[in-house]
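The protein record reproduced below.
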Amino acid sequence: MRYFIICVIFLSTLTNNVMAQVVALPAGALAFSSEHEERLFKSDDDVFALMTALHAEPSLNNQSWQKLLHTLDKKSKKKHYQEWFVQQIFYQSHRQLLKTYEKHATFNDVLTSGTYDCVSGSAVLGLLLDRYGFEHQVVETDYHVFIKLDIGEKTIVLESTEPLHGFISDQNSVDKFLQSFKEAAPVAQTDLKIELGSLLNSENGKSIYNEIGIHQLAGLQYYNDAVYLFNQESYELCYRQLVKAAVLYPSKRILKFRDLMEKLRAIQEDD
């Protein structure tokens, strides 16, 4: 089975040293790095703004994004050729915006430098599909995120981390791709001991297959950041990002990680 560049969003093994460094915050308290982040975070009606809330930059340069929109707006005159236009969305995004895969690259990194991961790359594609009226699903798996949409009776997959072959429209290939992320039999919960950005085969974990939206994807972006901060031993910031992730997307694994950090905080308070 072929390997995919993926975004793994789980924490490392906990130790007693972690407990000593978790900083106590009021349970569930939202803490923002700036007023600008808070304003963007609460932009429920503007998902683009919400995606830029993580590591918010007041003077964010989005010229590449605007250039991409200009290109696609012109091509959208022919969007009734639906499969062709979705293909244009995918390849123009890689040609103009999604330049280099880099684990833990945020949506703002995409806009400013062209670096992306599966979460931020899928966010770009999802926002564009929304703009041009294409219903779609963001598919969250144990180790990866991608886009799936139906055009007529045909299902198409947009795999953001494969710039050359990530537009998958052949139905046998689509079925094989989707099945590779689904469990054939009941499996145990994926072991939460793998750092961000590992190169893994999808056989390594098939306990999660959720169809979500861009709003929830923003929550996964905060979760990714929390895992990164955890691995950097920045436990206070990790907890704060988890609280925000849980507000946007209260999934089982996000809540489990947040609750675990809260228990560590309680242990520290008791010491």
Q: What stands out?
A: The first helix runs from residue 16 to 21. Residues 4-270 form one domain. DSSP finds eleven helices and nine strands in the chain.
